[in-house]
Structures are given as structure tokens and as C-alpha cells.
Amino acid sequence: MAQILIINGHHPYPFAEGRLNASFAERAKTWFESQGDAVKLTKTSGLDWDADAEIADHQWADTILLQFPVNWMGLPWSLKKYMDEVYTAGMDGRLCAGDGRSREDASKHYGSGGSLTGKRYMLSVTFNAPREAFDDPDQFLFQGRSLDDLLFPQHMNFRFFGMKALPSFAAYDVMKTPEIEADFARFDAHLASAFQKSGHEAA
Q1: Which long-range contacts (CB under 8 A, 24 or more apart) does 71-80 make?
Q2: What is the pTM of this model?
Q3: Which helix (H) or strand (E) holds 42?
Q4: How many CB atoms lie within 10 A of CB 168?
Q5: DSSP string across 84-123
Q6: What is the spatial distance between Cα 190 and Cα 131, in angstroms, rounded to a whole number?
Q7: Tens digit of pLDDT for each residue in 2-34?
Q8: pLDDT for 182-196, tens place per residue?
């Protein structure tokens, strides 16, 4: 039995109330529970979270699934606030022991002080951007960059804790031409591929 922490990082906006990201988070919870896993689900919007309790959940989990919409090429503000408060509090050694450097040579090993080694994480995101906007040098905005190129700062947050990445998932073009049922089916298949192959054991 694996221990899974799911973080729903959506922040409601007038044009996006958060139902889709909540649905992905609940769908993941149902899928993991069907595999016999223990699941905790938290959300970053509308809650006065307790940083110590959230840190304890990170320590408890084998895998963390972070579900969020990409807003202005980054995180919704309530998710960023959650990270600023919870992850900064965890720098006392619970999530990482500082930044990993030594006073003997402060130029080396930045970011290597993570305390969650052996644990994994997955990024699952929703986009207004279409799938075709990525991995194509002829596209205007991303200029050939990939999904994980855009998500690189979020990957580094978890690498800072010593965690290993599972393949990222994205639902594209969810505002203009959504294909929700197809996205849900892809999501289920993505979870099965990522977790069933590994036997649910931490890498």
C-alpha cells in the first residue's frame, strides 16, 4: 500500500471556478484508493492551512501529486502562498536542511539538502494553451519548448527536497475546445502507466 498526498492548487477566478482541477484531484484520489492506497487530499485555496500539519503530510507520503492550472506561465497565487509558507517552514530539516551547501565551499551542491529522498512527485496541470503550442519551433510563444521546460521551476522545487519526478500530465485547451472525457481517460491511463509499472513502491 502506497501513501499518496494530492494537492489541489487551483485558485478560483470568475472565468474558472476550479471544477476541472477539483475533478482531476478527486479522480486521482478514487483511482489510488481503488489500488488499496492511503490518500490524503488538500487544497490551497480557501483554507487556513497549518504548516506543520502540511509538512507532516509531505513526510508521510510516498508520492505527492500536485494538480493545478498554469496561470501566467506559473502557479496560481494561493498555491504559491502555500509553497512560500509551508515549504519555507520545512527548511528546518523536515523537508530540507537548508540549501545543501557547506561553508567549506559555498559554490557547490546548491539545492542538495533535501530530506525527502526516495519519495516521488507528479505534476498534473491544465492549460488554456493547445497541445500544438509545445515542441514546435514555429509556434509563437513557446518557440519549441516542451511542457516540462515550462514546468521547470516546479520540478526544481521538488528536486530541492530530494524527490524524483514521475511523468507529467497535462490537459490542454480546456477553455476554448475542451475534451474533458478524453482528458479523464488519458489521465486514468497516465496514472496506471506511471504507478502500476513501479508496483507503487518509492523509487
Answers
A1: 71/11, 73/150, 74/153, 75/9, 75/154, 76/9, 76/10, 76/11, 76/44, 76/45, 77/11, 78/9, 78/11, 78/44, 78/45, 78/46, 79/7, 79/9, 79/10, 79/11, 79/44, 79/45
A2: 0.93
A3: strand 38-43
A4: 20
A5: IIIIHHTTBTTSBBTTS-BTTBTTS-TT--BS-TT-EEEE
A6: 16
A7: 999 999 999 887 777 789 999 999 999 999 999
A8: 999 999 999 999 997
